[in-house]
From TrEMBL:
Keywords: Carbohydrate metabolism, Galactose metabolism, Isomerase, NAD. This is UDP-glucose 4-epimerase. The gene is galE. Pathway: Carbohydrate metabolism; galactose metabolism. It comes from Metabacillus sediminilitoris. Its cofactor is NAD(+). It comes from the Bacteria. Residues 3-252 form the NAD-dependent epimerase/dehydratase domain.
């Protein structure tokens, strides 16, 4: 049996494919290559280029391949873009998941692990954030991910598809060997932008606000290494295969770092200057997001091992410094 990885050519999906294959799993990838990269595909995985909103396409894959579980990363994930183009997010994220669930029902595939987000919580009442806290998204992106969770909840009741929803905090880092890494066009995430500045590809980084109610005034986030994040997906798959009930888990490090602290840490790791300027706040940014990941540790047996931001930045730097143009070919 194979695991179907939707979005397996993207940053997080490609790390999942590599770990699944390391663990001896057979993998089938579906990706429309809109934000994913052909060079991020694992050579041992079967690959089908196409869009999850295309039901005929998805059905043909479930017919050709022998699939027992799905891991779903195929979604748009930028808060800012989702505010400017909300219908794009409802179409790809929500409608895409609807088509997927329909195909799973038709082909009797009963297990799905799904990438959700801390953006489902909105501005938290307190930190660390527990899975039981209210979900009041402040962005279209968060709303679509929460809606995807609800699609799964109601579909489970009618059709018995079990799901694990993993609510990610701030994912960064790369596979230690730097075969694959993070490459978004355009890049909006903090760690890659810091490292592009260290490489001299940007004159400076703009810190989005230093007047937040935090010790140094900049936003605090909980950074989790992509490899630790993916190990939770493999455990979630095992949990479902062992008959685990549908569930939701936070994935973070339970520690917060400010934007300024991340820049300072990156200066130490890279040994480079990283000029920073203070800019305006970015719309929709909560001041502090820190996860409680105790539930994932207790129920899934998750044991993140790469929890220091030094290690996260070091592995991200290893990728960025060896692939300064990301997956684009050198000229
Ligand atoms: N950030 C920043 N400058 C940048 C990019 C990000 O100050 O060029 C801040 C952003 O406001 C947030 C944190 O870094 O407080 C992490 O942002 P990112 O976009 O990486 O992740 P998010 O928290 O939106 O998921």
């Amino acid at each position: 049996m194979s695991v179907l990885v939707l979005g397996g050519a993207g940053y997080i999906g490609s790390h999942a494919v590599y770990q699944l294959i390391d663990q001896g799993e057979k993998v089938v990838i579906v990706d429309n290559l809109e934000t994913g990269h052909r060079d991020a595909l694992h050579p041992k995985a079967a690959f089908y280029e196409g869009d999850i909103r295309n039901g005929d396409f998805l059905n043909s894959i479930f017919e050709k391949e022998s699939i027992d579980a799905v891991i779903h990363f195929a979604a748009n994930s930028l808060v800012g873009e989702s505010m400017e183009n909300p219908l794009k997010y409802f179409d790809n994220n929500v409608y895409g998941t609807q088509v997927l669930l329909q195909a799973m029902i038709e082909h009797n595939v009963k297990k799905i692990v799904f990438s959700s987000t801390a953006a489902t919580y909105g501005e938290p009442e307190s930190v660390p954030i527990l899975e039981t806290m209210p979900t009041i998204p402040t962005s279209t992106y968060g709303e679509t991910k929460l809606t995807m969770e609800k699609l799964m909840k109601w579909t489970e009741q009618a059709h018995g598809i079990k799901y694990v929803s993993l609510r990610y905090f701030n994912v960064a880092g790369a596979r230690e060997t730097a075969e694959i890494g993070e490459d978004h066009q355009p890049e909006t995430h903090l760690v890659p932008i810091i490292l592009q500045t260290a490489l001299g590809q940007r004159s400076h980084i703009t810190i989005f606000g230093d007047d937040y109610n935090t010790p140094d005034g900049t936003c605090i986030r909980d950074y989790v290494h992509v490899e630790d994040l993916i190990s939770a997906h493999l455990l979630a798959l095992k949990y479902l295969r062992n008959g685990g009930k549908s569930n939701v888990f936070n994935l973070g490090s339970n520690k917060g770092f400010s934007v300024k602290e991340m820049i300072d840490e990156a200066k130490l790791v890279t040994g480079r200057d990283i000029p920073a300027k203070i800019g305006a706040r970015r719309a929709g940014d909560p001041s502090i997001l820190i996860a409680s990941s105790e539930k994932a540790k207790q129920v899934l047996g998750w044991n993140p091992t790469q929890t220091s931001v030094t290690k996260i930045i070091k592995d991200a730097w290893n990728w960025h410094s060896t692939h300064p143009k990301g997956y684009r070919k050198e000229v």
